[in-house]
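User: structure tokens for this one?
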Amino acid sequence: LDALTRASLQVWLLRMWEMLGKTVLLITHDVEEAVLLSDRVYALTSRPGRVQSTLPVTLPRPRAYEMTATPAFAELKAALFATLWSQDAGGRGNEPWP
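Assistant:
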């Protein structure tokens, strides 16, 4: 999806969740999307896929797309990326930051 369509669908999903109050299972490879839409993110290992870690998303609800520009969002996103990089890089030293 293009960026605007993706953002529109994310906002739509947030509104549907608020209206219906149902449990939603979202599977994504997009870290920002996972943090924005989730209350809890499960990071999986490579093959075989197993739960490596769980990141509680403590951002307040209701959520809005503008929340992606906040320091709290950036902190959660960085924590999730660090978890994924540590598993994927396997200590090879190819992390994108020091």
